[in-house]
């Protein structure tokens, strides 16, 4: 109620006064109403201030004490603890915490990718994925780690990287208790080892995969796309990790070393295979001939000896091979390519095995021990030649006898004597 409206309501009182008395009364009334109005404004401002403070106050999670800026964000966050996922997909039944996640998921079924890169045309489901992809072209890495200085392209990648320093693994599997750095790793683990779910299937061969990344990598088998190429030798790869591993051939980097003998390797799988030399373990067994192998890849290649299968054909001639490695080595006969270079003397080789043997000339490293006497050799064929001293085998004499028996007829009289 305004001052003016209250004065009008008191018009009957005004009529009972006259002259100076009326002026005094009006002066008192106005000052009183002004005071009341001012007090009301002050009270109102205090109430509004209290409301703003309450609205701006951070809300605390009752499960982990994390503070969030709004009641809505708190509600969404607490679903992480409760496991509540109220939004489910009509097509596949997958459930989500928020309606936004469900809408984004619907694009998986509709194959809608509304966000496309202007530089390469690649399309994405979300604008966040597009922004992250655009940094591939700009090579921008705006997020840096305070502990080691490493720069990353996304804040999500930075958060995951920081956990490598802290050792934090906040996502736990309810089935087996295993802990993981990210929720994505946890989901992949659950599908791979517990549910067996493979939601990503290839349209060309119907092969199914646990993650969308595995499906994308597999699809390059059909498209023959190899987007990652080596600047030194031109060899192309399906995965960036394969390229990084290959580049160690040129740089000579060997980050994986054996705890028992100190030998270093460029690949972790090579170290695991090497370690079996110390343990003597050969877990992969051939059912046809009984031969044991330290690596599964070696067993698969070996089985093709029995089956006669040679699935890898040379692109320059009709010769076929049991393994892709042998095929690649053979093709270099046609191309003359020698991608493996010695960092000491610059000599180049067709095969990495040749380079490894050659490096022993510089390092004087001896890696092939004799089980009988303990003598060590730089090359495997030198070891085999040495072992004949212990076995008494004379292959040259055996070959001569074989040739003579095949070409010279033996008299029956000699046999009868």
UniProtKB/TrEMBL annotation:
<comment type="similarity">
    <text>Belongs to the krueppel C2H2-type zinc-finger protein family.</text>
</comment>
<keyword id="KW-0472">Membrane</keyword>
<dbReference type="GO" id="GO:0008270">
    <property type="term" value="F:zinc ion binding"/>
</dbReference>
<feature type="domain" description="C2H2-type">
    <location>
        <begin position="368"/>
        <end position="395"/>
    </location>
</feature>
<feature type="transmembrane region" description="Helical">
    <location>
        <begin position="12"/>
        <end position="34"/>
    </location>
</feature>
<keyword id="KW-0539">Nucleus</keyword>
<keyword id="KW-0805">Transcription regulation</keyword>
<keyword id="KW-0804">Transcription</keyword>
<feature type="domain" description="C2H2-type">
    <location>
        <begin position="59"/>
        <end position="86"/>
    </location>
</feature>
<comment type="function">
    <text>May be involved in transcriptional regulation.</text>
</comment>
<feature type="domain" description="C2H2-type">
    <location>
        <begin position="143"/>
        <end position="170"/>
    </location>
</feature>
<dbReference type="GO" id="GO:0010468">
    <property type="term" value="P:regulation of gene expression"/>
</dbReference>
<protein>
    <recommendedName>
        <fullName>C2H2-type domain-containing protein</fullName>
    </recommendedName>
</protein>
<dbReference type="GO" id="GO:0005634">
    <property type="term" value="C:nucleus"/>
</dbReference>
<feature type="domain" description="C2H2-type">
    <location>
        <begin position="228"/>
        <end position="255"/>
    </location>
</feature>
<feature type="domain" description="C2H2-type">
    <location>
        <begin position="115"/>
        <end position="142"/>
    </location>
</feature>
<feature type="domain" description="C2H2-type">
    <location>
        <begin position="284"/>
        <end position="311"/>
    </location>
</feature>
<dbReference type="Pfam" id="PF00096">
    <property type="entry name" value="zf-C2H2"/>
</dbReference>
<keyword id="KW-0812">Transmembrane</keyword>
<dbReference type="InterPro" id="IPR036236">
    <property type="entry name" value="Znf_C2H2_sf"/>
</dbReference>
<keyword id="KW-0479">Metal-binding</keyword>
<feature type="domain" description="C2H2-type">
    <location>
        <begin position="312"/>
        <end position="339"/>
    </location>
</feature>
<keyword id="KW-0677">Repeat</keyword>
<feature type="domain" description="C2H2-type">
    <location>
        <begin position="171"/>
        <end position="199"/>
    </location>
</feature>
<feature type="domain" description="C2H2-type">
    <location>
        <begin position="340"/>
        <end position="367"/>
    </location>
</feature>
<keyword id="KW-0238">DNA-binding</keyword>
<keyword id="KW-1133">Transmembrane helix</keyword>
<dbReference type="InterPro" id="IPR050331">
    <property type="entry name" value="Zinc_finger"/>
</dbReference>
<dbReference type="GO" id="GO:0003677">
    <property type="term" value="F:DNA binding"/>
</dbReference>
<feature type="domain" description="C2H2-type">
    <location>
        <begin position="256"/>
        <end position="283"/>
    </location>
</feature>
<keyword id="KW-0863">Zinc-finger</keyword>
<keyword id="KW-0862">Zinc</keyword>
<feature type="domain" description="C2H2-type">
    <location>
        <begin position="200"/>
        <end position="227"/>
    </location>
</feature>
<dbReference type="InterPro" id="IPR013087">
    <property type="entry name" value="Znf_C2H2_type"/>
</dbReference>
<feature type="domain" description="C2H2-type">
    <location>
        <begin position="87"/>
        <end position="114"/>
    </location>
</feature>
């Amino acid at each position: 109620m305004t001052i003016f409206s209250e004065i009008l309501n008191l018009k009957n009182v005004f009529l009972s006064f006259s002259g100076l008395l009326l002026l005094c009364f009006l002066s008192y009334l106005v000052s009183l109403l002004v005071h009341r109005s001012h007090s009301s404004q002050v009270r109102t401002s205090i109430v509004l201030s209290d409301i703003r403070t309450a609205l701006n106050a951070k809300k605390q999670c009752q499960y982990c004490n994390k503070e969030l800026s709004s009641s809505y964000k708190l509600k969404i966050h607490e679903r992480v603890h409760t496991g509540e996922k109220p939004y489910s997909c009509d097509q596949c039944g997958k459930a989500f915490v928020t309606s936004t996640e469900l809408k984004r998921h619907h694009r998986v079924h509709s194959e809608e990718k509304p966000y496309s890169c202007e530089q390469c045309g690649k399309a994405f489901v979300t604008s966040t994925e597009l922004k992250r992809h655009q940094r591939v072209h700009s090579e921008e890495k705006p997020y840096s780690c305070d502990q080691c200085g490493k720069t990353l392209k996304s804040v999500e990648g930075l958060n995951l990287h920081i956990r490598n320093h802290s050792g934090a693994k906040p996502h736990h599997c309810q089935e087996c208790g295993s802990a993981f750095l990210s929720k994505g790793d946890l989901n992949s683990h659950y599908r791979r080892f517990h549910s067996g779910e493979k939601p990503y299937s290839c349209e060309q061969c119907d092969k199914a995969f646990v993650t969308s990344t595995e499906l994308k990598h597999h699809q390059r088998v059909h498209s023959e796309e190899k987007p990652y190429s080596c600047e030194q030798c031109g060899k192309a790869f399906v995965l960036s990790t394969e390229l990084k591993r290959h580049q160690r051939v040129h740089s000579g980097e060997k980050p994986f070393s054996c705890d028992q003998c100190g030998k270093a390797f460029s690949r972790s799988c090579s170290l695991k295979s090497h370690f079996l030399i110390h343990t003597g373990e050969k877990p992969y067994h051939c059912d046809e001939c009984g031969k044991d192998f330290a690596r599964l890849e070696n067993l698969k290649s070996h089985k093709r000896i029995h089956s006669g299968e040679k699935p890898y054909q040379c692109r320059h001639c009709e010769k076929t091979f049991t393994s892709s490695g042998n095929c690649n080595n053979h093709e270099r006969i046609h191309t003359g390519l020698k991608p493996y270079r010695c960092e000491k003397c610059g000599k180049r080789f067709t095969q990495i095995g040749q380079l490894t043997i050659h490096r022993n000339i510089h390092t004087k490293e001896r890696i092939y021990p004799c089980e009988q006497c303990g003598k060590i050799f730089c090359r495997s064929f030198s070891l085999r030649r040495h072992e004949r001293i212990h076995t008494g085998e004379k292959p040259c004499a055996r070959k001569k006898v074989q040739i003579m028996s095949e070409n010279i007829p033996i008299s029956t009289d000699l046999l009868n004597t």
